Amino acid sequence: MVTLAEVAQHAGVSASTVSYVLSGKRSISVGTRQRVERSIQELGYHPNAGARALASSRSNIIALMVPLRTDMYVPVMMEIAIAVATTARAHGYDVLLLTGEEGPDAVRRVTGSGLADAMILMDVELDDERLPLLRQTDQPSVLIGLPADTSGLTCVDLDFGATGALCAEHLAALGHRDIAVIGEAPAVYERHTGFAERTLDGLRSRARELGLRVLHRPCEGGYDAMAATLARIFDERPGTTGFVVQNESAVEPLLALLRQQGRAVPEDVSVIAVCPDQVAVQASVRLTSVAIPAHEMGRRAVERLVAKLDGHGKDEVVLLTPELTVRSSTGPVSGGS
Amino acid sequence: MVTLAEVAQHAGVSASTVSYVLSGKRSISVGTRQRVERSIQELGYHPNAGARALASSRSNIIALMVPLRTDMYVPVMMEIAIAVATTARAHGYDVLLLTGEEGPDAVRRVTGSGLADAMILMDVELDDERLPLLRQTDQPSVLIGLPADTSGLTCVDLDFGATGALCAEHLAALGHRDIAVIGEAPAVYERHTGFAERTLDGLRSRARELGLRVLHRPCEGGYDAMAATLARIFDERPGTTGFVVQNESAVEPLLALLRQQGRAVPEDVSVIAVCPDQVAVQASVRLTSVAIPAHEMGRRAVERLVAKLDGHGKDEVVLLTPELTVRSSTGPVSGGS
DNA sequence: ATAGGCTGTCGAAGCGCTTCGACACGAACT
DNA sequence: AGTTCGTGTCGAAGCGCTTCGACAGCCTAT
Predict the structure, then answer these.
(1) CB burial class (10 A; 0-12, 13-18, 19+) of residue B265?
(2) Identity of the residue in B49, B77, B253 whose CB atom sits nearest the CB atom of A284
(3) Phi/psi-derived region of residue B38, left when phi > 0, alpha when psi is between -120 and 50, beta in every other case
(4) Cβ of A90 under 8 Å from any chain B Cβ?
(5) What is the CATH number of the domain that holds B86?
(6) Do residues B180 and B256 both lie within one domain?
(7) What is the C-alpha to C-alpha distance for residues B214 and B205, in angstroms, rounded to an integer?
(8) Is the CB atom of residue A1 positioned under 7 angstroms from any atom of strand D?
(9) B333 within a domain of the structure (yes/no)
(10) What is the CATH number of the domain that holds A40?
(11) CA A79 to CA B66: how far, in whole Å?
(12) Over its length of 337 residues, how does chain A's per-residue pLDDT go in tens digits?
């Protein structure tokens, strides 16, 4: 293990000089800098992370708490995690992966031990039990998601309210009057993660303005659950011609069922999905969708965090504007007019 | 920030005594231990990670390198990552998330800086450029996957050869004679990640013994790619009645296409998927499948690693035995005999 | 010519912990 | 009684780095 001292000796300077070359916190003459850099190269020196953390009280690590359960939006979570790791690295930070399993204790442990300089929380519930801890510590944090009370917190999320509104507008413009929302699994609503409710609220209020009738049904993923849900929907509102699907794992079953029932997409019914673009283009029908900008969310979260760590950057809520991409699963209402 | 010294003072003992209470490396009288533990509680003490790492040259962190690309098996990757994080935590380790982006440099950086005590590599290629580094460092590591040369390495993986064989056996037993393998995207083969080839080899050699004819076609995910692939298959081998699908994102398109062509599953054609159970049961047909035991792989990898860190634990290759679960997508060949 | 200000470098202190050797004490032997 | 041993505790020496204050040397302004 090569140490700073060895590099210093090799370069014929003092240890502090090497340190300053590395950190750039004091000016160093060109000659010295080059000599030190060559020594670092030649000896294959890597600063020891523990020593650095101890001396500077900075670990250069960002903690990322991901949900333990894999029941929803796995690709989204994964994409966010990867975006976080990549962006963090670009800013000189590493990422510590924490699962939600430990709950609030993880927050205490990480802030208390100085393991990480800051944290990013995913899958935030409306009244998350980790929030009080975050507010009382002075360690910066960013939430991906939106709790009920955002005071004193920084949040990054898709504007799910606007997402819902966008879906309503698109379907209304195409002449649909009766639409059904295939929501997340009931467990998601019970957990009060918020984004599902926000989508629904946004959709409902815009739908009211536009004169749409909305039927909302939570739905577990999978074929069987979707079949049952769909049957109930057509039972209750036979005239339903528009679907908004928020549950990724219900999309493909829905398409299969519609096909099977002889309802053509988009001629007879239109379907909008709220999902990553990749899912939308890989489906059996190229889906009109509102994208979940997972990469963007991860990146923004890290950037906010880094800004805070650098001293600037205040608490704020960043809501990303949703974008609807028209593909082949939505079209004007047939038969009508 | 509460320090060891403060705890010691509060409990009326020396710092080293507190340290020994924490680590258990020397015997401590019951009375002293309790006094110290109470002080720790009362003061809310958390040992400083950096100081601990510096003094003990142990960071209690395991690095996990996940592939950057999200083009394949995302749910599997995620599940492995979560299993790793959970299991590691149970053994007192935290997990550092590295993306494949940095490549071999990440290995150098982590081992050089003492950031982590050990590493787990996913998405290992047959002739991975990180392997030489792993062999020459004395830091323990475990691969999830199987490179060409495993000497001096510890690997955990599903026995994909046996997986392929299992598929062949099941289809043969049901009377199928002409089978098609829908493989991973061409990029996966080009990258030489190995598992796809191993599945195919295992399947081919068992098929030969059983007198099956095998057609293998790599396939990008998605509906369009699957449609083209399927057309070519039936063009070349109209009598194909059995399918083995290794690409998750081709499963649902395949089912939709077969349905659309009026070929009933499992009456006319049988389909076996190689995928996590969750995917198999959520598909539009409950799929007969060979499970990818992602959780188990992550857990085993950590356990091997912890064993190595504790001194026991030698280099070895652990191949998990595949298990085929019969569901509703495979059945005896119709019409025949 | 001299005071003042930069620039580049160094030495030393200390971050909070682990761990080694020392040692005091009582118990269990001769 | 003295020796030996084991047990429980302490003090001190680092681990490898950052950072502060000091200062030598030079340049510029007076």
Answers:
(1) buried
(2) B253
(3) alpha
(4) no
(5) 3.40.50.2300
(6) yes
(7) 10
(8) yes
(9) no
(10) 1.10.260.40
(11) 12
(12) 899 999 999 999 999 999 999 999 999 999 999 999 999 999 999 999 999 999 999 999 999 999 887 666 788 899 999 999 999 999 999 999 999 888 899 999 999 999 999 999 999 999 999 999 999 999 999 999 999 999 999 999 999 999 999 999 999 999 999 999 999 999 888 888 889 999 999 999 999 999 999 999 999 988 889 999 999 999 999 999 999 999 988 998 999 899 889 999 999 999 999 999 988 988 888 999 999 999 999 999 999 999 999 988 889 999 999 999 999 999 999 864 4
Number of C-beta neighbours around residue B225 at 10 A: 18
User: What is the domain extent for residue B259?
Assistant: 160-293
Note whether A77 and A137 are same-domain residues: yes
Residue A327 lies in a domain: no
- Which helix (H) or strand (E) segment is A301 a member of? helix A294-309
Please, which residues bridge with residue B97 across strands?
A95, B64
Flag whether residue B322 sits within 8 Å of chain A, measured between CB atoms: no
The two three-digit tokens of residue B218, written as one number: 């790599």
Q: Tell me, yes or no, whether B93 and B132 share the same domain.
A: yes
- Are residues B244 and B254 in contact, defined by beta-carbon separation less than 8 angstroms? no
Contact A83, A295 (CB under 8 A): yes
Strand C: list protein residues with Cβ under 7 Å. Answer: A 12-17, 20, 26-29, 31-33, 51, 54-55, 57; B 1, 3-5, 15-16, 19-20, 22-23, 25, 45, 47-48, 51-52, 54-56
Residue A29 placed within a domain: yes
Chain B positions touching A115 (Cβ under 8 A) are 49, 94
Give the total number of structural domains in chain B.
3
* Same domain (yes/no): A224, A311: no
Same domain, A20 and A71: no
Closest to A120 measured CA to CA, from A306, A329, A323, A333 = A306
Cβ-defined contact of B75 to A79 (cutoff 8 Å): no
Looking at the structure, do residues B200 and B304 belong to the same domain, yes or no?
no
> Measuring CA to CA, how many Å separate B58 from each of A236, B98, B314?
63, 19, 20
Nucleotides, chain D, CB distance < 7 Å: 7-12, 14-21
